[in-house]
Fold this sequence. Notes:
Elements (H helix, E strand, L loop, with lengths): L2 H10 L4 H7 L10 H25 L3 H6 L15 H6 L3 H15 L3
Helix pairs in contact: 1-3, 3-6
Amino acid sequence: xxxxxxxxxxxxxxxxxxxxxxxxxxxxxxxxxxxxxxxxxxxxxxxxxxxxxxxxxxxxxxxxxxxxxxxxxxxxxxxxxxxxxxxxxxxxxxxxxxxxxxxxxxxxx
Length: 109
């Protein structure tokens, strides 16, 4: 997935530029851990696309697809938080937890 596409999805989800930077910080070429950073960066971009595709499976209404990430959810793993709040934690595991939870619901599990 391209970085541009991920940012467009995040904008549709109502994520501010500063929060986007927290979720998927700019890569820093030449940093000591650049290969790990690139891998994590790529995974986050992929999960953004997967989450968006899953939301499209769950909802027909585009407003629900775009607005869901900002709504409080009392089911696990959200426990009263918004799905976007988990992504704002910044680690790739949070992205995976959000996707797995939504994907399970979309599949009726």
